[in-house]
């Protein structure tokens, strides 16, 4: 079994930043579909990454704290 690991920028962060709230907006967002923003890992390797099922608080572009699920 393989997993998609969304890094350098998480799937959730892209959806938030582009205010994606519909399939139409998602389909038009090039960054959401950028294959260079991810990697394919086996499940055991994915579980070893620091971002696997981990919540982090980071600053958004406005300097506000945001909880991102990576």
What report would you give on this structure?
This protein is an alpha+beta fold and about 70 residues long. Helix content is about 25%, strand content about 25%. It is built from 3 helices and 4 strands, in the order βααβαββ. Strands 1-2 form a two-stranded antiparallel sheet. A two-stranded antiparallel ribbon has the order 3-4. Strand 3 (about 55-60) and strand 4 (about 65-70) form a beta hairpin. It starts with a strand and ends with a strand. The mean pLDDT is about 80.
Order of helices and strands: EHHEHEE
Alpha-beta classification = alpha+beta
In the sheet with the most strands, the strands line up as: 1-2
Largest sheet: 2 strands, antiparallel
According to DSSP, the number of beta strands is 4
Distance between the termini: 19 Å
Low-confidence stretches: none
| Range of strand content | 25-35%
Average pLDDT metric: 80
Question: Count of helices?
Answer: 3
Helix percent band: 25-40%
Shape: globular
Kindly provide the radius of gyration, computed on alpha-carbon positions and rounded to a whole number of angstroms.
Answer: 13 Å
Summarize it:
By secondary structure, the chain is an alpha+beta fold.
Summarize the helices and strands and which ones pair or pack.
Blueprint: E1 2-5, H1 11-17, H2 23-28, E2 39-42, H3 43-48, E3 55-59, E4 65-69
Antiparallel strand pairs: 1-2, 3-4
């Amino acid at each position: 079994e393989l997993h998609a690991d969304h890094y350098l920028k998480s799937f959730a962060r892209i959806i938030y930043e582009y205010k994606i709230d519909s399939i139409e907006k998602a389909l038009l967002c090039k960054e959401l579909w950028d294959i260079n923003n991810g990697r394919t890992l086996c499940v055991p390797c994915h579980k070893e990454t620091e971002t696997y099922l981990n919540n982090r608080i980071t600053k958004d572009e406005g300097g506000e704290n945001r909880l991102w699920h990576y």
